[in-house]
Amino acid sequence: MTASKRVDRRQGQIAEWAAAISQTNAVLDQRRLELISATERAFDQYQLADQQATALQSGELRATESAVDDAKAAYRFGERGIVEVLDAQRVLQSCGVTWWMHNTTPIRID
Asked: Domains of the chain: which residue ranges?
């Protein structure tokens, strides 16, 4: 049996292996695209959460800090009672907890 006859007999197996390699490469490319897409979605979610936390920190948190300072000053001058100061501090604490939760909650990737 010559070498060319052996090659001819194995053409079916070679074509089968080549098809399996092509299929594996196609699956690999699909997985790569899925991972890239998931990574981009996760990054977009991260950016949105970061923007929300920044807005919360700069807006609501600063406003409540100012309200506490105002309540303390009014208390010192006898214009408000201690309950108003404590209430302002409670609101500030609530905003701080919300801000903390936005900054420490892990992002879930579906």
From this structure: 3-104
